[in-house]
């Protein structure tokens, strides 16, 4: 029996469907207001509850052999910032405690490259699992994902079998949630909401397809070492190169304006203030402005060697994404590549 937390999210639904196809029962913990579309498939059972509610977690964990923990607060801006610590750290700690008590044989934890921090100072601007980050954070999400690594090691030391998976920037066809950052960026460009690129868009991002992240989780289940963490990424790409290829595939032209980072910082602060005062949806925040200053590039060599992990070239994933956007009416067809 598999249990998946966070199974209603952008990546989570892909994981749930993949587990269901294995023919074993899959249980998904979902809040009452969660979007469960796409999960009405064979072998999948929904349990209403949340990871911070011990009673619902105890119920969900009964008879479970493997827990895939993907639940987290990913939102950029929230009214009460304490929710990041409450969910990403404290509730996670409780979940692992309950998993141990329930006799769960293995936990596959969806961490994030953000736990490792920016890669600017790494050799060739590309970091791996051994990278020692500086204790400075752009967002509460980044900070709490780093803190959650210590939670993992505490429970591993107590005997729980936990393997951590650290995906890069996940992209591909799927729900337009905040976790679908790349496709949302393409949509912003398409709708004229991307006037310029911070630093000319030359910072590196580790891009990985949803399907490859799914495969990385399954490989971690089967071959991962207890207490180990694996970067599940793909190609490291400058955002300007991504947008140029998007344009070649029929999307809008990349913005030509290169925005100095200090301008982005000011814009992020002003937009965040506007959000606090009015509640309006904003594209930029202080956290996003900070992240735009850095490289977020990583090597998946350990996963390749120990798990047999491989990834899809980013151009192929982008082509699929563009086709999906056209099919969904998010991108108007322009007569093919230019």
Question: Would you summarize the structure shown here?
Answer:
The protein is of the alpha/beta class and 338 residues long.
Number of helices: 11
CATH superfamily of the domain at 2-171 and 206-234 and 296-312: NAD(P)-binding Rossmann-like Domain
**H and E string:** EHEEHEHEHEEHEEHEEHEHHHH
What is the count of β-strands? 12
Shape: globular
The residue fraction in helices comes out at 25-40%
> Which fold name corresponds to the CATH topology of the domain at 2-171 and 206-234 and 296-312?
Rossmann fold
Which stretches are poorly predicted, pLDDT < 50 over at least 5 residues? Answer: none
CATH architecture of the domain at 2-171 and 206-234 and 296-312: 3-Layer(aba) Sandwich
Largest sheet: 7 strands, parallel
Report the top-level CATH class of the domain at 2-171 and 206-234 and 296-312.
Alpha Beta
Strand content: 15-25%
* Rg over CA atoms: 20 Å
What's the multimeric state?
A: single chain
Could you describe the 3D structure shown?
This protein is an alpha/beta fold. It has a domain of 216 residues: NAD(P)-binding Rossmann-like Domain (Rossmann fold), CATH 3.40.50.720. Helix 1 crosses helix 6, helix 2 runs parallel beside helix 3 and helix 3 runs parallel beside helix 4. The model has no long low-confidence stretch (mean pLDDT 93).
Keywords:
Rossmann fold, 3-stranded mixed beta sheet, 7-stranded parallel beta sheet, 11 helices, 338 residues, globular, single chain, alpha/beta
Chart the SSEs and their pairings.
Elements: E1 2-5, H1 12-20, E2 26-30, E3 44-48, H2 54-61, E4 66-69, H3 82-102, E5 106-110, H4 140-157, E6 162-167, E7 169-171, H5 181-190, E8 196-198, E9 204-209, H6 210-223, E10 229-232, E11 236-238, H7 239-248, E12 257-259, H8 261-278, H9 286-291, H10 301-307, H11 314-327
Parallel strand pairs: 1-2, 1-4, 2-3, 4-5, 5-6, 6-10, 7-9, 8-12
Antiparallel strand pairs: 9-11
